[in-house]
Amino acid sequence: MGRPQLSDEAAAYVRELVLTGQLRAGEFVRVDRVAEQLEMSVTPVREGLLALRGEGFLELAPRRGFVVAELTEDDVRDLFWVQARLAGELAARATTRLTPAEVAELEELQATITRALEAGELDEVERSNHAFHRTINLAARSPKLAWFLRAATRYVPNRFYHRIGGWPDASRHDHAGLLAAIRAQDAEGARRAMEEHIIHAGQLLVDHADLAVSTED
């Protein structure tokens, strides 16, 4: 059981380095260096990097090792487009199913995000933001759809949340319209607000990573 979990951790770590622009196209990813950084053996790291090759984040150069593949604006926007549609549907379903206690919990979490942001407590912003979205996703009572969203959010670089300019502040500002729609039990309004929030997060990541514009037709 340990090895798959370790390989997933290694894959997540390197994936986030690529998504946040800390590893650029053409750079080599050394198995031993990643293993040292994560304090694990080289075997699960190599398995994790092979998984990233399957996802298209890395390439394997013969006799040279793993190389970062090109990541374009369109690549990132596509990843966040999928997340936006899934999260938007969950938000729409949750809007009419949230209990008064759960709505109050969302309000308190949003207040915590605001206080933490003003105090510069970015770890608390991240924690409360995660709890905010989790409350909505659970309230939708659509476990299969929520599972697909969890799979999609592997491509959100949570480990480096603080590095993405604008992400913590977006957790405060973008939630306002979503909460207003939830209070009004406006399912379509909640869907739009959630989709816009996720798309905004993707654009902030594109801006941060300074990604290449896709040249595909």
Q: N-to-C SSE series?
A: HEHHEEHHHHHH
* Uncertain ranges: 212-217
How many E-type strands? 3
Q: On the 0-100 scale, what is the average pLDDT? A: 88
Can you describe what's shown?
This protein has 217 residues and is mainly alpha-helical. Helices cover 70% and strands 5% of the residues. The chain contains nine helices and three strands. It has a three-stranded antiparallel sheet with strand order 1-3-2. Strand 2 (58-61) and strand 3 form a beta hairpin.
Keywords:
217 residues, three-stranded antiparallel sheet, elongated, mainly alpha
How would the blueprint of this fold be written?
Blueprint: H1 2-19, E1 28-29, H2 31-38, H3 42-55, E2 58-61, E3 65-68, H4 73-95, H5 100-119, H6 122-139, H7 143-152, H8 167-183, H9 187-209
Antiparallel strand pairs: 1-3, 2-3
Helix pairs in contact: 1-3, 2-3, 4-6, 4-7, 4-9, 5-6, 5-8, 8-9
Structure, briefly:
Helix content is 70%, strand content 5%. It is mostly helical and 217 residues long.
